[in-house]
Amino acid sequence: MTAKTVLQTHHLVFYQALLDQDWSSLAELYADDYSLVRSNGSALSKEEVLTDLQSGDLVFRSIKLTNVLVRLIGSVALLTGDSQTIAERGGVEFVSHFRLVAVYVEDEGRIRLLHFQSTDIPAAHNAWLG
User: Fold this and answer.
1) 13, HSE (Cβ side, Cα atoms, 13 Å)
2) Which residue numbers delimit the DUF4440 domain (predicted)?
3) Which pLDDT tens digit goes with each residue over 34-72?
4) pLDDT over 90 for what percent of the chain?
5) What is the bridge-based pairing of β-strands 110-120 and 92-107?
6) How many degrees, rounded to 5, is the angle at CA 121 between CA 119 and CA 126?
7) What's the CA gap between 122 and 129, in Å, rounded?
């Protein structure tokens, strides 16, 4: 596992599967004990995340990642960055800007997403940054 392969996996597998609604690719990417902690503090298991996505209520339109850093520690990679996402939930479009931590692990030669956590970046902070 290299920083390059982690970045490729994050963009070409994770983000692309969200945009394409390719739930089988996500199910393969997520580790069996995958967890998601949303910016509101709610925590979901792999099964809960996939059920939510498969309901069709949440549709991703655009995902832009900036300020990316990948740190490798043995067979673990920590990817951090800022995300600007446009999505719809229940037909209502929303734009979110958050910092994220994605934890990837190497599992039998495959890169798997073990954990994803986001923290909202307040609009006032965005305005201050220009």
Assistant:
1) 18
2) 14-112
3) 999 988 888 989 999 899 888 877 888 988 988 999 999
4) 53
5) antiparallel
6) 165
7) 11
Looking at residue 53, its amino acid is: L
Helices within the chain (DSSP H only)? 3-8, 16-20, 23-29, 46-54, 123-129
Size (the chain), residues = 130
CATH code for the domain of 102: 3.10.450.50
Paired tokens of 123: 């609009």
pTM: 0.86
Token couple for 90: 């229940």
Here the tokens at position 89 are: 């939930």
Is the pLDDT confidence value at 129 over 60? no
Q: What's the domain count of the chain? A: 1
